[in-house]
Amino acid sequence: MRTYDFAPLYRATVGFDQIADLMDRVLTTEGSQPSYPPYNIEKLEDDSYRISIAVAGFSEQDLSVEVRENALIVSARKSEENAKHVYLHRGIATRAFERRFHLADHVHVTGASHVDGMLHIDLVREVPEALKPRQISISSTKRIEKDVVDAKSVN
Hints:
Elements: H1 7-12, H2 17-27, E1 39-45, E2 48-54, E3 63-68, E4 71-76, E5 97-102, E6 107-115, E7 118-125, H3 143-154
Antiparallel strand pairs: 1-2, 2-7, 3-4, 4-5, 6-7
């Protein structure tokens, strides 16, 4: 098992602590990663994404989608109405869950829909105008000629 020490990164940089925290979070091994419920992450366009989570057995009232501190938190709690049922075989898991997705800067949730047992969450990356690359026009100036003229007037 490899472990990485990010202390030199903290000592030598300013403002990159989020990257180190992200790397630390990704590299930590918590034993088993939760696999319930299964999900997909799709890239629809250059700046458009969709997270699809299989939520069979849950209604819209049982599901919660929340954005908090650059994290998308999807959770579900099954209502107690169905506790009266007696199952001979229970293959559809409807246990409570909480799934977290860490969002990059400028990624926003635009909507969510519950269709055919799938919860679809649409996201878009909206980079502010101030952070987008911009083209700087280059103007030609006669600076070299001015220096030559100044040198002639001195002599």
